[in-house]
Design a protein that fits this description.
A two-stranded antiparallel ribbon has the order 1-2. It has helices at about 5-20, 50-65, 70-80, 90-105; strands spanning about 35, 45. Helix content is about 55%, strand content about 5%. About 10% of the residues are buried.
């Protein structure tokens, strides 16, 4: 059971996050297609063109009929890396494709398209 202090802390944290969001400041880790920039305490979300370009390529290959394994192996062979220098994993490629589809649908003002299996 939560104490009154824990409940109050939760409320304060929720209000603080809402205020930061209203000010256009980052509230947590950046979601797909965005990154945070700026000094600590004043970080803002900005588009991450590199990650979006990777996701668009993965989605293009998937729509052409390539398997997840083929996409992974091709990214590995050409040395494609994430923004922080890590190798793209199967899971991160799948998540990037799903997130890219959601962002493209959102940008087009539509409902999110069904997932590519």
């Amino acid at each position: 059971m939560q104490t009154a202090d824990q409940i109050l802390l939760g409320i304060v944290q929720t209000l603080a996050a809402a205020r930061r969001k209203d000010l256009g400041l980052a509230t947590a880790r950046a979601s797909y297609g965005f990154m945070t920039v700026g000094p600590k305490g004043a970080k803002q979300l900005v588009p991450d063109e590199y990650t979006r370009a990777c996701g668009q390529k993965f989605l293009e290959w998937r729509r052409k009929g390539f398997s997840w394994s083929a996409i992974y192996l091709h990214a590995w062979h050409v040395g494609l890396r994430t923004r922080d220098g890590r190798e793209w994993s199967y899971g991160s490629i799948r998540r990037a494709v799903e997130a890219e589809m959601r962002l493209q649908a959102q940008e087009a003002g539509q409902q999110a398209a069904p997932a590519v299996s």
